[in-house]
Specification:
globular; binds glycine; 7-stranded mixed beta sheet; 354 residues; single chain; 12 strands; 21% strand; alpha/beta
Length: 354
């Protein structure tokens, strides 16, 4: 079993190995006393792993209470959050009990947010079952719900007590979801680790992901240790995300997050080189890696559509927006850009005349 330690306002471990869902109860018992464990899971993941997780919790002496929510981003609402909070209250959970988030990023974010605000915070554990959740959203304590005006607009920082990542869960992911997660992995390579980038460029295999997941989680843990509240260094994790979120928004959220990030990284690499912000042209290598990961690079929206959508982004502060600019594969920097320059930059990234 690989273990990465995250040192933040709470120090916790991320355990990574195939088959860990069957052992999750014992692992959780190492960090939390026996208690009622509210397992929040979506209907699709419940069919695959709900019984296994509840049995493991029961065997370890916990009392599991399962709440099933509908799958998909459309569940990540204040309504679902309210239903989870009511479920916790109706089952009499106290501060010495536990929320267990079983699933992908949607369930992790919403169950984590419920744990953050129920009784002004009760402990929670993340059991990620998608690649995106394993390498990104289950680690680092960002929890949120969407509002009609945009994704993740209401949330809280709240670190889990433990993350148990069963990499065998990646076997059952539809191809499109696996590719979606690879975009975040490639991003870690782009911002921090050329060897990791090369691993994705060579093509990763879903049945052999333990090392890759551990490397990604270690990179994330390093950024979270430096900047838990996202005031500086952690923002490098947003590489490709300003344009990526804009693509998602322009598509009415039918483009998956990772696909948006893939396009966003491409736009930023092209723009950085075209505008002289980067001396190295990272685009050819990135395009090869995206291809190897079955991710898109071309964008169906114009610079003006994307800039409009990006201005709604929560990374905007007044008249400025922090963009992450590649310097070379494995190194990026933060660049504060006046919002009135954004469309020109995106146009350069799309290869439009500017
Ligand atoms: N997903 C980016 C972050 O956690 O900061």
């Amino acid at each position: 079993m690989k273990t990465v330690t995250v040192q933040a306002s709470r120090t916790y471990e991320v355990h990574i190995e195939r088959g860990l869902l069957s052992k999750c109860g014992g692992l959780i018992a190492q960090v939390r006393p026996r208690c009622t464990a509210a397992v929040v899971v979506d209907d699709a993941v419940d069919k695959l792993y709900g019984a296994r997780v509840c049995a493991s919790l029961e065997n370890a002496g916990f009392s599991p209470k399962k709440m099933v929510v509908p799958h998909g981003e459309q569940s990540k609402t204040l309504n679902t959050l309210g239903a989870i909070l009511n479920f916790l209250a109706e089952n009499g959970l106290t501060k010495s009990d536990l929320v267990v988030a079983l699933g992908g990023g949607v369930v992790g974010d919403i169950a984590g947010f419920a744990a953050a605000i129920y009784l002004r915070e009760i402990p929670f554990v993340q059991l990620p079952t998608t690649l995106t959740a394993a390498i990104d959203s289950s680690v680092g304590g960002k929890t949120a719900v969407d509002l009609p005006a945009g994704k993740n607009l209401a949330g809280a920082f709240c670190q889990p007590s433990l993350v148990v990542c069963d990499t065998a869960a990646l076997d059952s992911l539809p191809d499109r979801y696996f590719a979606d997660g690879c975009a975040e992995g490639l991003k870690y390579g782009m911002i921090a680790d050329p060897a990791l980038f090369e691993a994705f460029r060579a093509g990763v295999h879903r049945r052999d992901m333990d090392d890759i997941v551990a490397q990604c989680v270690q990179i994330k843990a390093d950024f979270v240790r430096q900047d838990e509240r996202d005031q500086g260094a952690r923002q490098l994790l947003n590489f490709g995300h300003t344009v990526g979120h804009a693509v998602e928004r322009c598509s009415g959220y039918t483009t998956p997050h990772g696909y948006g990030v893939a396009i966003g990284m491409t736009v930023m690499c092209r723009a950085a080189y075209a505008l002289g912000l980067s001396r190295v042209n990272c685009t050819p290598a990135l395009l090869e890696a995206l291809d190897a990961c079955h991710l898109p690079s071309s964008c169906p929206y114009s610079a003006s559509q994307l800039a409009q959508a990006a201005l709604q982004d929560k990374k905007r502060r007044g008249d400025e927006i922090a963009l992450i600019v590649p310097e070379e594969i494995g190194r990026c920097r933060r660049e504060i850009v006046p919002v009135n320059q954004l469309e020109r930059l995106i146009a350069a990234g799309l290869g439009e005349d500017h």
